[in-house]
Write a structure and sequence with these properties.
The protein contains 12 helices and 10 strands. The chain is of the alpha+beta class. A hairpin with a 2-residue loop joins strand 9 and strand 10. It starts with 11 loop residues before the first helix and ends with a helix. Flavin-adenine dinucleotide binds next to strand 1, strand 3 and helix 12. Its EC number is 1.3.8.5.
Length: about 375
């Protein structure tokens, strides 16, 4: 890659992983990107490929069939996939940083032994928190779970659930005791065959190959042993996992911005106008230089947050900053990349416009940009007041 910035604190293992994911993305994913975007569907061979490459249990222990890599490795995988297709990237991101991580962090030994191997081998996971009336205000969720002997009965619905068209394992957040407010929220694992109704896919502006569906639970019976982390612990599980997940979305947006940059910049040195390559006009060269600075800043924020998390240090504020900033950078760099390629950039042919369409979601999911700012602001207020 022409620019991966000056950040070079990756281990040999992480560098080898980056090379391997780059090869997979270029050889296997790239040929399918346009077709998947136009058909609004994920090619099953790509999902299988991700599992076969060991990328779907990236931090999972070898004992449970995973690759046992670092958190930074999981972030590298998301970034590399996003350089080629942000849809494939988010599928892997949700599966690893949200679903697998919940089992690894909060699951009992029995739950880990049961679920992690399936999730590393072939079964795709979904994280089901948002609802029609509770997006940013996620803890106001209306899905309810009622104990019934050795089962819980879940009723309600979820909206916007990534991977849900292809997934087999669902982490569902439901309230078992609304009188306790959000302290009744509980996390359950359920499988598709228990009777989850999965509605049609949303038609979207971007990340169109990534499935996003509404789910309905009509007296869904889930064994009591499928509660993760205990009754009432769900809200903390959800937000603590999202703190980590936000570094993943930062990496997705960083990879996306780099992917757009890598496509458009070489073109500016080939395309001649007024007898010289357009990229050598100062007006263009300075825009490109500024975009490189933006990319570098997003990269430093993202990998700094990843290392903090990996080293067990506080990282919530830094993760919010990384997600907020990388989402801004993704929009600005991919938007400019279209302009650098002129009319050609505006067509579907080059794929640059797709990066721009895909970039919009970064400021919306896993906490909108305002929610990230609110998180950062709370830290500042605590420190300075
Ligand atoms: N980290 C840890 N704990 C946090 C926290 C954070 N960032 N933010 C809030 N909390 C805790 C508080 O400490 C408090 O817990 P205690 O009572 O135990 O102390 C509790 O949460 C409630 O705190 P607040 O009253 O301050 O929070 P709130 O109710 O106003 O909002 C929130 C909390 C719902 C987490 C909100 O800040 C938020 O992040 N909303 C966005 C939701 C979100 O990110 N959804 C993503 C869905 S998944 C997804 O999108 C995946 C995908 O697309 C790919
Ligand atoms: P709202 O919360 O209604 O926000 C609308 C606007 O109001 C935003 O600009 C927001 O910043 C602003 N706003 C709201 N509250 C405040 C405030 N307090 N201060 C300032 N501004 C505020 N959810 C899942 O659970 N699992 C998934 O896998 C998942 N995947 C998704 C995939 C896609 C493609 C999309 C679009 C969404 C996905 N989501 C998922 C849901 C996503 O997390 C929510 O869309 C997001 O949290 C925002 O919620 P909302 O859409 O209800 O917007």
């Amino acid at each position: 890659n022409a620019i991966i910035g000056s950040l070079d604190n990756f281990t040999d293992e992480e560098k080898m992983l980056r090379d391997a994911v780059q090869r997979f993305a270029v050889d296997v994913v790239a040929p399918k990107v346009r077709e998947m975007d136009e058909n609004e569907s994920m090619d099953p061979s790509i999902i299988k490929g991700l599992f076969d490459q060991g990328l779907m249990g990236i931090e999972t222990s070898a004992e449970h069939g995973g690759a046992e890599c670092s958190f930074t490795s999981a972030i590298i995988v998301i970034e590399e996939l996003a350089k080629i297709d942000p849809s494939v990237s988010v599928m892997c991101d949700v599966h690893n940083t949200l679903v697998n991580t919940i089992f690894r962090t909060y699951g009992t030994q029995e739950q880990q032994a049961k679920w992690l191997p399936q999730l590393a081998e072939s079964k795709l996971g979904s994280f089901c928190l948002s609802e029609t009336a509770s997006g940013s205000d996620a803890f106001a969720l209306q899905t309810r779970a009622k104990k019934d002997g050795d089962h819980y009965i879940i009723n309600g619905s979820k909206m916007w659930i990534t991977n849900s068209h292809e997934a087999e394992v669902f982490l569902i957040f439901a309230n078992v005791d609304p009188s306790k407010g959000y302290k009744g929220i509980t996390c359950f694992v359920a499988t598709k065959d228990m009777g989850i109704e999965i509605m049609k896919k949303e038609q979207k502006l971007g990340i169109r190959a990534s499935s996003t569906c509404t789910l309905n639970f009509d007296n869904l019976r889930v064994p009591a042993e499928n509660v993760i982390g205990g009754e009432g612990k769900g809200y903390k599980i959800a937000i603590e996992i999202l703190n980590e997940g936000r570094i993943g979305i930062a990496a997705q947006m960083l990879g996306l911005a780099q992917g757009a940059f890598d496509k458009a910049v070489p073109y500016t040195y080939q395309r001649q106008q007024f007898g010289q390559p357009i990229g050598t006009f100062q007006g263009m060269a300075f825009q490109i230089a500024r975009a490189a600075v933006e990319l570098e800043s997003a990269r430093l924020l993202t990998y700094n947050a990843a290392r903090l998390k990996e080293e067990g240090k506080p990282f919530t504020k830094e993760a919010a900053m990384a997600k907020y900033w990388a989402s801004q950078v993704a929009q600005s760099v991919s938007g400019q990349a279209i302009e650098w390629a002129g009319g050609v950039g505006f067509t579907r042919e080059t794929g640059i416009e797709k990066f721009w369409r895909d970039s919009k979601i970064g400021a919306i999911y896993e906490g909108t940009s305002n929610i990230q700012l609110q998180t950062i602001a709370k830290f500042i207020q605590k420190q300075y007041s």
